[in-house]
Each structure stands twice: as structure tokens, then as C-alpha cells.
Amino acid sequence: MPRKASAPANAHASSSSGSKSPTHTRVTGTPTPNLQRGQACYSCRQRKLRCDGKKPVCTPCLEGEREDDCEYLGGSERPQTEILQDSIRRVEMKISQLEARRGSMSPPGTPSSSGGSSRSESPTMARSREPSLGATIELIDAFLPSAPELGFFLDPTRFRHSALLDLPANHAARPAPALMAAVYLWGLRLSQSPSKAHKEPAFLARACELAAQGLAGIHPLRVVHTLQAEILLAQYFFAAERFLEGKYHAAAATAIAVGLVNGRLESMEESERRAAWYTTVVLDQTWAVVLEEERGLGAQGWVMDDSPLGLLGQSAILWQRSSSLVRRWGVDLRREEAQALSVTLDELVALTDDLQARLSPRTPFIARSIAYAAEMQLALPLNDWERRLGAARNILALVADYSLESPADGRAPFVNPILGPIWLSAVQVVVVSCATDADGLLVKLLRRAVLVIGTFSGTCVLLTHHISWMQELVAGI
């Protein structure tokens, strides 16, 4: 598709705009008329070029491929470009202030993002017996409603049935101990019970210890169950903003998944193998974006698959590849490297447009959100503000229409923690555009979306921090 040059390059990282350098073209042939002060277009005034005053686009802007920047203003009127750029600077300054205050925002008793390793917990507590049957039921039932948000790819009905069998913890008919410990950990966290919060360090230590030993056991499904346990642990640490530990468990999950998908480990149903692979790809690719790292699963994980998990996997891969391209776009490159990046950009735009065409209202909320996040990223090197704003607006519209289904006991609903960074990026873009929102529709959408987003506050440290930042940004408009 043709690339559209547009006003602001970015609402958070304007150095990665990917726009062409200004072309100082002086028109020859036809004499340039002498215009009165203030009659030249805004673009020529900024570049100190002699404007010929032609409308709708003057000759210097036409030859310099700056048609979208050619604006004629009268009197003290400010161009939309300047208004948006001022708004960008204000939003970036506000984000910097919020990030500086980040260290003081963790509620008492929450895991520290820079805290010590969970493996330092008491070995006696880590080896403690399993919960009672009643406690086991309570923990599993607290976990399962939110399991899809955490990357639980096993069949939940079969899992619950086997987990409640009256058999020893390491029996082949029950889930492997590492998986049970990870589920207990999340069940305790999701139960949001203040009276049981003190048990979480022991549960965490046990889950990490058993996951480390998972592949060395004798359970017939030790590989796939250890993979599932590592995914749950990675999500636990990422949600707590303990990123180093999250990366460790995500890397362990990736290594196991590569063996599974290549058929070298354990016999499993093809549907379950595919679910395990897609879930690992999504974990690997999405958190690579947040942590600004390069990951290698994207090339292996891409398959044209219109199943819900397939669309989620493709969305995650496109988001990671788009973010990776944006990080490299603003760096000084040799001509050959720049040309290669341009080709990659065209490919990603085509893949993103194709993916958007295959999404539907039945596509999972998380898949559509990530797909729009990828589109927001691609709009940066395209220098297409309207495309970026449209993707951000679509993300917030999804949130505004989100069907809140709180658990029956009144606990706060839980969503995938990766949505926090996505929502924050969308809010930043829309807040910038509110400066030129004549009819107030953007402000209305923004406030409705952030109101819904606020219901997820308190479910995990990461979301709580991001939601607090969003609320402060919206309070300032």
C-alpha cells in the first residue's frame, strides 16, 4: 500500500518516525511570486523555503513529497501538526514523571520487581505437603476461570478431574507435581484472600523447585506438564514485574516447546501439541516487545491458521516483528540495510492488512488487541498518524465494549497482564489527539475505556501500575 506521510511521528518515541529527511527543493522556471508575510504555507515557513502559494499544495511541498504537511494558515492560527507535537511533548513529560514515581507505587506486601530469587525460600516450606482436598478444590476453582488469560492450554475439565483423584501427588493419573504447584500458586493469588497471602512465598518456592526438577521425574506427561508449569511461572513473575525471573521461566518454556513441536518429546494429541506451541509463541513474542528484546520463535511460529489460537499467535509475531523494526528504523544504517528494512516494512504491512481482514468479532479479545498494537507500531515508520490513531482508537473501543464478568464472590476480574502495556500505548496516542478533538468523541471514548480498565486494578502489580498511569493521563485532559 502507498505510504502516507503525516504530521506527528510518535506519541512516545518520536525518534523512530521513519520519515524522509526534508528535501530543500527550489523550483526553477516559473518565477516565484512575492507573497506577503504570513501567506506562505506552514511547511515552507518551517524549512525557510520560498513558497509560491499554490493551493491546495504549493510547488516546493509537491516536489518534496510533503503534500500532507502543506497547510495555509491565517492570522494567529496554529497548524494541527504543531498542536499535536506540543501535545506529544506534554504526554511524554507526564509519562516520564509517572515512571520516576514508579518505585513508590507498589502496595505493601507485593513482590518486589528487584527482589531476590524465589529459590531462597525455606526448603522446609518448599517441601511441605499438598493442600487438603478442600483447599485443593478451592485453589483449582479460583484458578480455572482465569486460566485462558494465563496461557493454560490443557483441557480444563480433564485437568480438574485428574487433579482431584484420590491418589498420591506423583501418581501417573494425576497432573505432574510441578504443574499442580504452579496451579496452586496462581489459585492462591487469584483467590485474593488477605488471610492466606502469607502463604504465597512458600507456594512460590515450591512451584519453582518442582519446575526445576520436572523434566527429571518419571511422570509420563512430565514434559508437557513442566512446559505448562513454566508458562504459568513466567506469567506470575511478569505480572509481578519481576522481569528477570520471568525471562528465566519463559526461556525454559521456549526450550521445552521447541522439542515438543518437533515431535522429539512425548506423544501428544496434535491439537494439544499445537495449543502448547502457539501459547509458548505468544508468551515469547509479546514479552519480547515489552522488554525490547529480540526473540527467535517468530520465524518458526508463523502459520496461516484462522483458529482463535492461530490468530493470536500471528498477532503476537507481527507485534514483535513490527516493534523490532521500529527499534532499528531510527538508527544510522548503510544504504543496503535501509533498503532491507524498507522491504521488511512492506512485507509486514501486507501481513498486517491481511490479518486485520481475517479478524472478526468472534476473534478473541486479546488477539484483536495485539493485532491493533502491531498496527500502531507499523504506523511509526510509515509516518502515518491517522493509521496509528485508528489502531489506538480500535483498542480502546474493544475495552469500552468489554463484557465484565466478575467472579460470583465479588473478586476483581482478571485479564492477561500483557494488556497493560498495550492499553497504555493506546491511551497515550489518543490523549495526544484529544488536543484536536473538536467534537469530543475521542475524549468520551477515552474516559469510558479507562473507566472499564480501572476495574482490573489490583489484580496484579503490572496492571495496577499501568492503570494508575492511564488514569493520571486522562485526568489531565
From TrEMBL:
It comes from the Eukaryota. Residues 1-39, 98-129 are annotated as: Disordered. Keywords: Metal-binding, Nucleus, Transcription, Transcription regulation. The keyword Transcription regulation applies. It is found in: Nucleus. InterPro entries: TF_fung, Zn2-C6_fun-type_DNA-bd_sf, Zn2Cys6_DnaBD. Residues 22-37 have a biased composition (Polar residues). Residues 40-72 form the Zn(2)-C6 fungal-type domain. GO terms for cellular component: nucleus. Its main location: nucleus. It holds the Pfam family Zn_clus. Residues 1-21, 103-125 have a biased composition (Low complexity). The keyword Transcription regulation applies. GO terms for molecular function: DNA-binding transcription factor activity, RNA polymerase II-specific; zinc ion binding. CDD domains: fungal_TF_MHR, GAL4. This is Zn(2)-C6 fungal-type domain-containing protein. It comes from Mycena chlorophos.
